[in-house]
Amino acid sequence: MNLLREIPQVSKLLEVFKEKYPEAICKRAIRETLEKVRQEIKTGKRQSLEDLHALIEKRIRELSYTRLKRVINATGVVINTNLGRSPLAKEVAEFVKEIAIGYSNLEYDLERGKRGSRLSHVEELLCELTGAEAAHVVNNNAGAVYLVLNTLAFGKEVVVSRGELVEIGGSFRIPDIMRASGAKLVEVGTTNRTRLSDYEKAVGPETALLMKVHRSNFYMDGFVEEVKPEELLSLGLPVYYDMGSGSLLSLRDFGIRAEEPSFAETIKKGVHIVSGSGDKLLGGPQAGIILGKADFIQKLRKNPMSRALRIDKLTLAGLEMTLRLYLRGEYEKIPTLRMLLQSPEELKKRAKKLARRLRQLKSIEVFVIRDFSRCGGGALPELSLETYCVGIRHKNLSITEMERLLRESEPPIVARLKQDLVLLDVRTLTEEDVREVVKVLGFMGN
Fold first, then answer.
1. Does this chain's domain 72-82+339-445 share its CATH topology with 90-333?
2. Contacts of range 394-402, beta carbons closer than 8 Å, 24 or more positions apart
3. Helices marked H in 52-206 — which ranges?
4. CA pair distance 102, 90, nearest whole angstrom
5. Which residues pair with 421 in a beta bridge?
6. This prediction's pTM
7. Is 162 exposed, middle or buried (0-12, 13-18, 19+ CB in 10 A)?
8. Beta strands in 31-89 (DSSP E)
9. pLDDT tens across 154-211, in order?
10. 90-333 to CATH, choices 3.40.50.11540, 2.60.40.1260, 3.40.640.10, 3.40.50.720
């Protein structure tokens, strides 16, 4: 316990660091480090104070960093919810920056010289790309579902198939959102089979909407049956389709074998209201996109909750520029689409190139592995994308230790483990990411 008496006073340690770092951060770092050191001494885990200054400086640097930071996604999960879902295109990020650092005509009509609508910047684009009569945008798709139900079915019944009462990210469930919106849930059918006659029998004088929910985060196979949204139109009631992932394109046209509806396909079939996410298959910023008949969209705009759920100028800028890339047909510039559409041949070539660079490191064994990527983000759950990974193994570290060190590096690298290897899936690595990966592993491997 004599070591406890040798611990310097906070004030003396503060004199060492406050000239180089902000005093408030120094105080916190010193106190936290000293508390940790005291506990280590008491439990017998520490025998000296030689590294005290180094520990304090390390903690100062940790406290000085932003908590939110850029992460390298080597998992192969393209729309990785934990890692921020869809990355924005460079042109999009540059436009967001331009709007962020100055003033903008967010709600100002430059032509008329009067107050305007913030959503006018994207509504015309959304309608042109999808064929919808009108469009509205809120902060995310859960907000979109809430707004539609609260506006069109408050105090009334909404008929939904039992097999579509899904749970989305963060444990939010469709029945919970419906309850919060004030709508009354009417379940029909069974988990695996729902017919048009089930909806028809459930319709009554209090029925306001027929709701269809795309099971975007899971799929069912085998003895299953469901009703298509256009079939519900025959019952003569407003039909709302929560599409979840929000694809602007038919992915089948690009060779992806998946039954994922696009906004345009659904609108063309005459569905009254459709909603989906901006930051999933669309590849833009987080947003809830609502499309449909003009009279329904107008009702949504008049709901006071529209203001509570509205998007800010940075989201609006990101969405507008992303939509303009679609309008120009520049799909390859949208990172989510580019990553999903990469061919196995190109991925293999990139994996081999990375492997050659890593084989120069003495302490790391390197392999090129054929594997499968996932779309992620609650989209295309049945789709396995053939990919190639660089599998690595350190001669002196376990794979769990190696994975942790990668995660704690600057920038952090998040990979996946398989058997006795750390896998770096090149599908989700940019050229800049690859340079960073080589640099970080260079410190470990030499």
1. no
2. 394/363, 394/364, 394/365, 394/444, 394/445, 395/363, 395/364, 395/365, 396/363, 397/444, 402/444
3. 52-64, 90-100, 120-130, 141-153, 174-181, 196-202
4. 19
5. 418
6. 0.89
7. middle
8. 72-73
9. 999 999 999 888 776 656 688 888 899 999 999 999 878 899 999 999 999 999 999 9
10. 3.40.640.10
